[in-house]
Amino acid sequence: MRTQVAIIGAGPAGLLLGQLLHAAGIDNVILEQRSGDYVLSRVRAGVLESGTVRLLDAVGAGTRLHAEGLPHDGFDLLFDGVRHRIDLAGLSGKHVTVYGQTEVTRDLMELRAGQGALTVYEAEKVALHDFDGDAPYVTYLDRGEQKRLDCDFIAGCDGYHGVSRASVPSRALKTFERVYPFGWLGLLADVPPVSHELIYAGEERGFALCSMRSNSRSRYYLQCALNERVDDWSDERFWAELRRRLDPATADALVTGPSLEKSLAPLRSFVAEPMRFGRLFLAGDAAHIVPPTGAKGLNLAASDVHYLSEALREHYAERSSAGIDAYSARALARVWKAERFSWWLTGLMHHFPDHDGFGGRIQQAERAYLVSSPAAMTALAENYVGLPF
Ligand code: FAD
Ligand code: DHB
Q1: Which of 209, 214, 263, 343 to mutate to test the pocket of ligand 2 (most atoms within 8 A of CB)?
Q2: Residue 291 CA: distances (Å) to CA of 178, 204, 224, 268
Q3: Of 132, 168, 122, 139, which Cα lies nearest the Cα of 153?
Q4: CA diameter of the chain
Q5: pTM (2 d.p.)
Q6: Is 208:218 a contact under the CB 8 Å cutoff?
Q7: Phi and psi of 347, rounded to 5°?
Q8: Residue 292: closest CA among 180, 131, 175
Q9: Using one digit for the tens of pLDDT, what is the confidence trace for 63-105?
Q10: How far is the CA of 128 from the centre of ligand 1 (A)?
Q11: Inter-helix orientation angle 297-318/322-349, to 10°
């Protein structure tokens, strides 16, 4: 089999890239190691920047998002029992849209299936070959049968644990990493959200986030120790701990119910440079991870594939390699700003078990400064709604 671009991974990065390339008339095949149902069952991000929405609209995947997504003009920060509103719209002129990653994925999958474009699910033993030369190809097992996909380019959109970055010789990669001494325990439940906007709570017992998927489905997170196990967290224990991390009025308003899903994610910052090796490009979590605090992971995957699809369009339509040559530097410039923001907001909002007295006082001062300074709140709002791309 032959295609122009072989895309590894059918997460948001791979699926959106597939649609952007399709719109530019560039043939592509997606190889995904899991089943479509498995990919759809992973509950992850929930907040879309307007740039991400613009891309989804551009490929024709925005209809349900506009009908069902919730535009949010602000959110609350809660410290010391007091909620402080960050007026995103007033400070930045933009809003964000609350719409789950599972729904983005579903919309993109359905669009792709409707176009008859090929996605091979449950592709096993995907291996990348000769991307440092002119004739790269990918091999894999399709229902036990060995297959070969020849291509012009390979897009590694296969997440942090994928094969693409792992195929690059380690001497060609420079990696940067920060591992945080805590994780997030997430719970999804069909209960109305406690507030119509998100609440990021930074209390002494640890961080908590009140988010949502719709007016009848809530998503909550608790900062927890890295050695916690999901099985040790009954729904009752989760709700009780969440209540303790909210101010009394919010805790009283909390509606609880049986969980639909619970999962634990460690927090990490990670960047691999560069994002291009000959005819292999990395995009999304395959190249970088942010801690979820700033809601940037999915949005960075979107800006990466925007730059990459533009570069490939230029290559095919204009016979120019300028975009391809600039891809890594363009993408990384935006990635590092989102890394900085996610790291900063993580530091602002979490309880650090290793903080000495000084670190704790600096955190208090930073919070007090932030909510008293329109300039500081504007910087927060500008980053949260998403830097331009
Ligand atoms: P992924 O979504 O990881 O997709 C990669 C795809 O590649 C997967 O479908 C995978 O099965 C496939 N794949 C992997 N290896 C191979 C292989 N060898 N061959 C073929 N296919 C392969 N972001 C937020 O903004 N907010 C959040 O609350 C949030 N929560 C998260 C919770 C968890 C547990 C995780 C892991 C991430 C979370 N993120 C969150 C980050 C966000 O979900 C990611 O940034 C986003 O999914 C990145 O999309 P992606 O397409 O680059 O990677
Ligand atoms: C969600 C996750 C985040 O990391 C965040 O900052 C906001 C919302 C969510 O899953 O709803």
Answers
A1: 209
A2: 10, 20, 14, 5
A3: 132
A4: 63
A5: 0.97
A6: no
A7: -65, -35
A8: 180
A9: 999 999 999 999 999 999 999 999 999 999 999 999 999 999 9
A10: 20
A11: 170
